[in-house]
Amino acid sequence: DFGDLINYTLKLFCTRPDILNFYRQQFKYILVDEFQDTNWAQYEMVKLLAAPLNNLTVVGDDDQSIYRFRGASMSNILQFKKDYPAAQEVVLIANYRSSQNILDLAYRFIQRNNPNRLEWQMSEGRKQEGGGQSSSLSKSLKAATALEGIIEHLHGETIDDELRLMAEKILEFKSKDKEASWGDFAVLARSNEQVNQADLAMGSLGLPHQSVTAKGLYLKPVIVDVLAYLRLLDNYHESPSLWRVLNFPFWKLRPRDLVELSHFASKKSWSLFEALEKSALIPNLHEETHRIFGTVLKWINEHTVFARDHRPSELLVKVLNEIGYTGYIESKPEGQSRNEFSYLNQFHRRIKRWEETEADPRIRDFMPAITYEIESGEVGDLSVDVEVGPDVVRVMTVHAAKGLEFKYVFVTGLVDRRFPTTERRDPIELPDALVKEILPQGDNNIHLEEERRLFYVAMTRAKRGLWLASAEDYGGSRKKKLSQFLIELDIPLAGGKKAAANVSGLPALVLGDLVDADIIKDYLPEQFSFTQLKAYETCPYQYRYAHVLKVPVWGRHTFSFGQSMHLTLERFFTRLKEKKSARQGSLFAEGQPSAAAEPTLEELLQIYESSWIDEWYESKDQAQEYFNLGRDILKEFFKKHEDAWPDTKFLEKGFNLKIGSYTLKGKVDRVDARGDGVEIIDYKTGSVPKNEDVDKDQLFIYQLAAENIWQEKPVALTFYYLGENKPISFLGTAHDLEALKKKIISTIEEIRKSEFKAKPSPQTCRHCDFKKICPFSQA
């Protein structure tokens, strides 16, 4: 790799002096720019080439050393003065970019990295040499302009508010500053993930923009659209993908008809494609909707046939042109259309590279390949040249902005653990003896100093305006604290308080489909369940797909296995109850046969075989593996209980529970009599959570149902983990139950607002059924 090129060249120079002398003669004068970004090996090579004449000039700023993650050693610039004590110094402090107040703010901020800065160390060294005299060395930059800059802190209640506040400021200053172009504005973020989030928001709010990041091709909405259509050609019954395709704006489908189609599919337990084929059965659909459905079916069928005998690269071009997607992009503003065509061309090249590795490249092989790539965490390489292209707002990481300048700069995500980030230690750390970096003095640490330098770079990209943005709610369970850097800067909030953005003329943030909140309200559930509430708590946008729009999803083999185990135990305990009743009846019937025997292990396994649901498994081998696992679990279950079967009162007991003015429905796996009360049991086929940290809300709901509907007294609530044959029991207190009621009412009231703000995270999105079509996905 590139590192080896440097290392082996260094080794060559050290072991072959004749070769070193040859290049010393060739390069008599050496200038190294951005010296703070060199690593130890590069600096050693420069020193070897420069010797013995040492006609060497280095240009750098230790306060802008931000590439430690790729090996850059900030200590090189500190070490240079020790290696070359007679070197002449030229301090460049005239700044032709920024206003003085922006420069002063940045300078005060970066001094928190003292004593590990060149300015401080050289000043201290001169004080010692001069017997305590102050040094004239200063890196306090002086602006060439007398214009004062704008510095503000924008703070929203949610990430959506934060992004809208920035968009509003961009529109405000684009209007005020008649000389400003869209290219004079930049939104800077700490990570690629935050760039993608801001990029989506800028597009949703209608601002011409360009995302400048090295990663994220597969996350671009235009590529998500293309992948959704291609998945359909590989598998008609990929319902989430068909939902995204039907929401392409150029079809001009009525949103209410789309929801009717989805609900019809859910009611019939069909895939969305099956419902589309039989949409004539759906009452009250608009006549034009039937025609468009027919057109969509026609293209899907024709392109499926074409895909069998043609390369995916040919298929992509044919699809985009024939269904009208190319014309749809062309109709957008020039900057946006140019960006989207660029993404499509890059994706087309990605397909062509894959085709070069295949003997017979077809879509049936490409889709699994790209799916595996995405599921492994790859989001696709991006190629963007920030110096050319349309007049648009640039959205990029701070690292990508290094060396660039913009009239107005917005820095987003300034909250704890986002900027500065938390340090991620290397899995295998180098011994201190091998580390060439000069370790920092004082209370700072290497990571925090690097993050502070990165923020310094962000601030000094701004010419006339600097806005620092944050929010309280980024989708997690807790409110976010302000960034340590904002606290250090002590900039008052714009307007004196946090704000929820609300400026007329800006559209709402995109939901990824045509169905708006007014329509959604007509399809909210009338009853709720623990599963629904948990889905909303995990991600309201996921809840919207699953429980309001009711987009059908591809089944999972784990669900089939769980249903098989639940059905087996329900039938087994039903038989157990029947035999118990038969034994009790025989005590009172003269001349009747002796008491019925208890069920045997053989009976349990026979019930299991007849209850087995052989669906959604990826292969026969996987199905057999799970079937054998179930048999082993049931054998252990029988062995554990055969001498003391419980007295079961209810199996699959349903309920409708009133909480406030809302109704919760549910079904309890098993209820056993225990002493003067009952034990409520819910089966789990997964593993026991770490530290037995279980979510108790589900069984608390069942406890409320038992007390208020069945008039039973629960003495234990039990999650029974079948995989380990281990019960975990507890019981809710009056305080627990009252707190749960308040939480349920609050959650349902949030649902009824129909806002459904996404709460994306890599962990949540990875397990979401809608990760392939969701515009907010971080999977």
UniProtKB/TrEMBL annotation:
CDD domains: DEXQc_UvrD (cd17932). Residues 1-99 form the UvrD-like helicase ATP-binding domain. Residues 100-403 form the UvrD-like helicase C-terminal domain. GO terms for cellular component: cytosol; DNA helicase complex. Keywords: ATP-binding, DNA damage, DNA repair, DNA-binding, Exonuclease, Helicase, Hydrolase, Isomerase, Nuclease, Nucleotide-binding. It is an enzyme of class 5 (isomerase). InterPro entries: DNA_helicase_UvrD-like_C, DNA_helicase_UvrD/REP, P-loop_NTPase, PDDEXK-like_dom_sf, PDDEXK_AddAB-type, Restrct_endonuc-II-like, UvrD-like_ATP-bd. Its EC number is 5.6.2.4. PROSITE patterns: UVRD_HELICASE_ATP_BIND, UVRD_HELICASE_CTER. SUPFAM superfamilies: P-loop containing nucleoside triphosphate hydrolases, Restriction endonuclease-like. One of its GO terms (biological process) is recombinational repair. It catalyses: Couples ATP hydrolysis with the unwinding of duplex DNA by translocating in the 3'-5' direction; ATP + H2O = ADP + phosphate + H(+). One of its GO terms (molecular function) is exonuclease activity. This is DNA 3'-5' helicase.
